[in-house]
Amino acid sequence: MSHRRISKSKAILAGAGAVGVAAAAILLPNANASQSGTDDGAGDGARQNAKTVSAASAPELVARLSSQLGEEYAGAYYDAQKKQVVVNVADGDDGESTARVRDAGAVARSVQNSMGELRSATGTLSRDATIPGTAWAVDPRTNQILVTADTTVTGERWDTLESTVRSLGDGVARIQKSAGEFKPFLEGGDAIFGGGARCSLGFNVTTQDGTPGFLTAGHCGVAAEQWSEDQNGAPVGTVQAATFPGDGDFALLTYDDPATQAPSEVDVGNGQTVPISQAGEAAVGLEVIRMGSTTGLADGTVTGLGATVNYAEGSVSGLIQTNVCAEPGDSGGPLFTADGTAIGLTSGGSGDCTSGGETFFQPVTTTLAAVGAEIGAGGADQGGGEEGVEAGSGH
Length: 395
Description:
Layout: H1 8-13, H2 21-27, H3 44-47, H4 58-69, E1 73-79, E2 84-90, H5 96-103, E3 107-111, H6 115-128, E4 134-139, E5 144-149, H7 155-167, E6 173-177, E7 183-184, E8 191-194, E9 197-200, E10 204-207, E11 212-216, H8 218-221, E12 226-228, E13 235-243, E14 250-255, E15 265-269, E16 272-275, E17 278-279, E18 287-292, E19 296-311, E20 314-322, E21 334-336, E22 341-349, E23 359-363, H9 364-371, E24 373-375
């Protein structure tokens, strides 16, 4: 089989994708673990007949049950330790929904707040408490909305937030304080530079017309039109679409050289690259890994979906909330799972990789649908061959 040579400069920018199972043993020992357990109240009896499912199949099972249960569906999450899906069923269920959950192989858990009530509450927060430095997402483990306020939320702004949460009623939402300040991580897969800013390349993609490109954060895409692999270097990619703030934080760039080979890989440093296999949905409780050009690898779990974060630059909705650390320069970098699934693009958050904090990610599936692209190099040959340079070896 013949192989086109991949230049070292292009190989460096090729570092994006999701990690394969074999590579997980390389990645995880070097990652910064940030895990937390929660007593979910689902007893042994409810779990007795539940099936063991993989993290990759959990979102599909959740989506199917949420559609079937309708108004009685109240959220769900993946219990990574027991490898089970836990589905919340709103109080008042006549038993039919609980039976349907159990028949599907998931754990049924009776809760107070319906998803409709929680969504109504997030609407109230958006209307009355869109304050820079705040964020909220539904936490299915507690069946509440988790509202987070960073260190800038003080005085009247804190009073407004607290009174708004109180107005939602008992047991609907709770507030936690963040040790840092919410901000887009504009600055660190592989570093890319544009307009004096630094970000990270997310995932290589193929556009609708077959042109190779890559995804990164939207706040990077609106900061500069052209991006290079070196600071003050010649441009290698041009922004075709960017969204920030608003309904997401994502950008699509195409490589300026249409002959660029863009292997579907993550550059994890030390000459190691791992292949991407697919794009998938996040699920609360899903164990994930992040790569960024500033801090390298970090891991943790998904803690919320459909999150809204209020940056100083504006509000962004539809994000994935995690306890994975990140720092400035990691923006746009890939979030993925150990089974080879691309999950998200780093948006922003608070804290750092010393003290921890909350980090938000743009869902990859939503991004691909919005820009009309697909993960990977399409029909391009991804092999390195004897005459090629291993993609990502120049990280």
